[in-house]
């Protein structure tokens, strides 16, 4: 009996969706900050809010924290984000399952028209790329963070937030 081999790689079921969302950050708007619940994700986003607040003085910020870091944003929370925010920052891909959910959260926001960016640590960068491709939106904006972020302390997180604030603004404005 001959041996038959199967290729385990999936074929893309539909063409990739383009990412064409942009935010006008020049005036008053609300930026959502979605922490996935992984340790220090909410604290990091608080530091980012401070850094962005300096650069976007008219912006308001609304914090969201998911209860489970590996689960995608709930329909209820996504509806609240849609009702209240003109842009969204998702943090962060710091492990396998939370990388997947963070990238998918930013894609979910983009699909309802909200410009979004996801933070993914360098240790899980390739996985973030894979998830974006697999979920059909490979161009969803992502920003690479050093690994680890969690557990690095207030000063390190504050300095990192200050370093990436301009990139967050650029990604929200240009995709």
Secondary-structure blueprint:
Blueprint lengths: L29 E6 L5 H15 L4 E6 L9 H10 L2 E7 L2 H16 L4 E6 L3 H10 L7 E4 L8 H21 L1
Parallel strand pairs: 1-2, 1-3, 3-4, 4-5
Helix pairs in contact: 1-5, 3-4
Labels describing this entry:
five-stranded parallel β-sheet; 175 residues; 5 helices; Rossmann fold; globular; alpha/beta
Offer a concise description of the structure.
The protein is of the alpha/beta class and 175 residues long.
> What CATH architecture would you give?
3-Layer(aba) Sandwich
Q: What name goes with the CATH superfamily?
A: Glycerate kinase, domain 1
Overall shape: globular
Weakly predicted, low-confidence segments: none
Per the CATH scheme, the topology name is Rossmann fold
- The CATH C-level class name: Alpha Beta
User: Whole-number average pLDDT?
Assistant: 94
Overall domain count: 1
The SSE string, one letter per element, is EHEHEHEHEH
- Count of β-strands: 5
**For the largest beta sheet, what order do the strands appear in spatially?**
2-1-3-4-5
Helical proportion, percent range: 40-55%
Distance between the termini: 53 Å
Describe this structure in words.
- The protein has one domain: Glycerate kinase, domain 1 (Rossmann fold, 3-Layer(aba) Sandwich), CATH 3.40.50.
- The termini are far apart.
- The mean pLDDT is about 95.
- Helix content is about 40%, strand content about 15%.
- Helix 1 packs across helix 5 and helix 3 crosses helix 4.
- It has a five-stranded parallel β-sheet with strand order 2-1-3-4-5, sandwiched between helices.
- The radius of gyration is 17 Å and the shape is globular.
- The protein contains five helices and five strands; from the N terminus they run E-H-E-H-E-H-E-H-E-H.
- Helix 1 links the parallel strand 1 and strand 2.
- It is α/β, with parallel strands linked by helices.
């Amino acid at each position: 009996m001959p041996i038959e081999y199967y290729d385990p790689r999936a074929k893309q079921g539909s063409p990739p969706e383009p990412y064409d969302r942009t935010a006008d950050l020049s005036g008053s708007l609300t930026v959502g900050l979605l922490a996935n619940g992984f340790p220090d994700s909410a604290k990091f986003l608080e530091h980012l809010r401070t850094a962005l607040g300096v650069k976007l003085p008219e912006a308001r910020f609304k914090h969201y924290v998911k209860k489970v870091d590996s689960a995608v944003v709930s329909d209820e929370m996504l509806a609240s984000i849609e009702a209240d925010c003109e842009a969204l920052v998702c943090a962060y891909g710091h492990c396998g399952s939370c990388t997947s959910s963070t990238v998918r959260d930013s894609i979910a926001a983009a699909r309802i028209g909200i410009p979004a960016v996801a933070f993914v640590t360098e240790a899980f960068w390739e996985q973030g790329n894979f998830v974006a491709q697999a979920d059909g939106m490979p161009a969803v904006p992502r920003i690479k963070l050093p690994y680890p972020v969690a557990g690095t302390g207030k000063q390190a997180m504050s300095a990192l937030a200050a370093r990436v604030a301009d990139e967050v603004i650029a990604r929200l404005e240009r995709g």
